[in-house]
Known about the structure:
Blueprint: E1 2-5, H1 8-14, H2 26-35, E2 39-46, E3 49-61, E4 64-69, E5 82-83, H3 90-107, E6 115-120, H4 129-133, E7 137-147, H5 153-159, H6 162-173, E8 177-181, H7 183-199, H8 208-217, E9 222-228, E10 234-242, E11 246-252, H9 262-276, E12 285-290, H10 294-300, E13 306-314, H11 318-330
Helix pairs in contact: 2-8, 6-9, 7-8
Amino acid sequence: MHIETLTFSDWGKALPATGFEWSHTPETLRVLDRHAKDVCLYGGYKGQQLVGLLPAVVRTELFATAIISPPPGFGIPQMGPILMPTSPKQRKREIVNKEFTQAILETVAAHDPCTLFGVSCSTTYTDPRPYLWAGFDVESRFTYQLALRSTTPKRVLQSFSREARRGVHNAEEAGITVSQGGIEDARAVYDAHRTRRNEQGDNYPVSWEYTRDLVETLGDRIRVYVAETAAGAFLSGITVVYSNDKGYFFQGGTRTERNGNANELLHWRIIEDILTDPELGSIDRYDLGNANLEPLAHYKSKYDAEPVPHYLIKSGKLMDIVQKAYEIIAY
């Protein structure tokens, strides 16, 4: 196994048809490189066959080098490695995983005491044991995903809790409408999201410049949904990003005293479009995001989504400090 650094063009050609995150797309990685800087794209080869991919931000500050995938402060919860074994047999898949992991760790000098390594893996990367065996900390995290393959809008709506169904109905009865918007609407969604997070003491780190770049660059891989009153006043909105097979909640959905059930209707329209819009025909899951905090879990579970695990890999407790420091450096 040997590791090569790929160009953005080569990376796009190397991606499999499915099984990767929106953060793995070359469009997203180009945006990230413009704002986080220092994006490196690693490809693992067995002979001439590409079998593994890992994007990361590689940053050297003072006497330490941090390899982080994804970097904090950019609204990306998952990134990490992609495996592309050529055999479906479990043993051979495990060998590819182990050899690719070992080659990556050696390439980035991850065991060096001056190297800090942190990866938040996608839900499709289900076997982090090679990192555990190599001495890294592995922790589980959860995201909520709603499976939408081979179903209908009626069945999905019926699967919602009574509270969620009532919220959708009440919003429609109140004359709230949902439509897709452009850059100005994306700014309204961003401002509402940032204001709410800051009110909660979270100090939301994602910048508008980065968000705008995503909206302008991702094309069909991003949509801005806006909920308005019958008079056209902004109530709420959600920005959704897409991989080849999943839609992801990115920003918005903030609850205020005046927006009523707008968010229930927003999520429902997003789900309806995934089920009925031919342009989204390959999308079969909707990822509602963070399922680790109890209040969020209580809200998101009413859409009948399931908690799906993914893994956080890091080189030790010092990595927590570096992640905080990296946010300060980036902003």
